[in-house]
Design a protein that fits this description.
14-stranded antiparallel β-barrel, 4-stranded mixed sheet, 27 strands
């Protein structure tokens, strides 16, 4: 009886990668291509089309303008795409080597210019609040199969990151007009993990840890074009978060697989506070509290760590055609949420299809629909230890939002 398992495993890894995940989590940092049998190469592109909108919180009288009836934000999410590729070489029966490229973290939000001026500045700059973050990651992995069916692997991860942020609107008060350009920076982290595989039974279990990566970034800060120089210039430290992936799959028939993925990302320790912004926020909190609190606040951070899970099934109909179906869930990073991430996780359902013209190569595609969680948003002062400030800093409500993700992958065993 012929086994179709290898192709089904590849199909599972395609559909579970269509993530509209919490915070800036993007690729999911999958190591599954490295666990393919023999020599293997793949490349993929994932695209997403989110629809995220909300409205100014009605209880904020300071955000209400005379003569304005529309306090909606319209759609703030931009369509985006990201890429990944992997090369795995089985150098010896007990030694394997891999190169993995992905774009693990990213964000692209832009609030349209509106007359209500809550999240935009329709008068001076005629711009809306926006954030754009782009990262690229290249991992080199060495695997050692010291015992039958066991694979220990580890290696360095080289990462670059850049971005820009603009704050606009009444929700930011004195920070309206602030801009920050995060210039490209490169840093190195590492990953490690182990896997247990029985290829003939389509059994695979893998646990992978990705370290945080510490960046020290030159940030150019200004207010409507005027340089912001409250303190001596220095680099801003930003650490992309550590994460853990647990992947599992097993067969239920010769042509059917069950699979799952659980992912944890340490967003609770993630902080963005550029040097000049931090100094300005310290002045602001000192004034607000009459000197009882001088610690300032962050440009962006998150209240909770992210958990996500995917469970699904893949079925091979013929040697050329197979399909998969899965369900996904993401916890989000807390409620209230940052203006830069105005959702609370998601529920998702996906379908994928794979075609093998020949046994050694394939093309596959998939689509996934996401119901995004409702959330209240707050400005950057939400976590300050000042009376009633947490409630007063709530600025918006986002609900009934959704997204669609698409993926395309080619792969080749050689």
């Amino acid at each position: 009886m012929k086994s179709y398992y290898p192709g089904l495993a590849i199909l599972c890894s395609l559909i579970s990668s269509h993530g509209i995940a919490a915070a800036m989590d993007q690729s999911g940092q999958s190591l599954l291509p490295f666990l393919e049998v023999g020599h293997y190469f793949e490349a993929s592109i994932t695209a997403a089309d989110p629809e995220v909108s909300g409205r100014t919180l009605g209880t904020r009288s300071d955000l209400i303008n005379s003569g304005v009836d529309d306090y909606s934000t319209d759609n703030i999410s931009q369509s985006f795409q990201y890429y990944s590729a992997a090369l795995k070489l089985q150098l010896k029966p007990q030694l394997s080597f891999g190169i993995l490229y992905d774009q693990p973290f990213g964000s692209d939000l832009q609030y349209p210019v509106k007359r209500n001026a809550s999240f935009s500045d329709p008068v001076l700059s005629q711009q809306g609040t926006q954030i754009n973050v782009d990262s690229q990651n290249l991992s080199l992995i060495l695997g050692y199969q010291s015992f039958k069916n066991f694979n220990l692997y580890a290696g360095p991860a080289f990462q670059t990151i850049k971005g820009h942020v603009s704050l606009r609107g009444l929700v930011y008060a004195d920070f309206n007009g602030y801009n920050a350009i995060f210039k490209p920076d490169a840093a190195v982290g590492w990953l490690a993990g182990f896997a247990y595989q029985v290829p003939d039974m389509a059994l695979k279990a893998a646990l992978t840890y990705h370290s945080k990566i510490d960046h020290k970034i030159n940030v150019s800060e200004n207010v409507l074009g005027t340089p912001l120089l409250l303190v001596d210039e220095s680099k801003t430290k930003i650490s992309t978060p550590q994460s853990i992936n647990l992947d599992f799959q097993t067969s239920i028939t010769v042509s059917t697989l069950l699979y799952s993925n659980i992912r944890w990302v340490n967003w609770k320790d993630f902080v963005i506070r550029p040097v000049q912004f931090g100094a300005l926020s310290q002045l602001a909190t000192t004034t607000i509290s009459s000197g009882t609190y001088t610690g300032g606040f962050n440009l962006d951070d998150y209240q909770k760590n992210q958990w996500s899970a995917t469970v699904g099934a893949a079925k091979q109909w013929t040697p050329q055609w197979s399909g998969a179906f899965d369900l996904g869930w993401d916890s989000g990073t807390g409620d209230p949420a940052s203006i830069f991430n105005p959702t609370k996780g998601y529920w998702g359902v996906g379908l994928a299809l794979k075609y093998n013209p020949e046994p050694d190569y394939f093309i596959s595609g998939g689509v996934k629909y996401f119901w995004l969680g409702d959330v209240t948003t707050q400005n950057g002062t939400y976590d300050l230890p000042l009376p009633v400030l947490s409630e007063a800093s709530k600025v918006g409500e986002f609900s009934e939002n959704h997204a669609i993700g698409y993926g395309l992958k080619i792969g080749y065993h050689f």
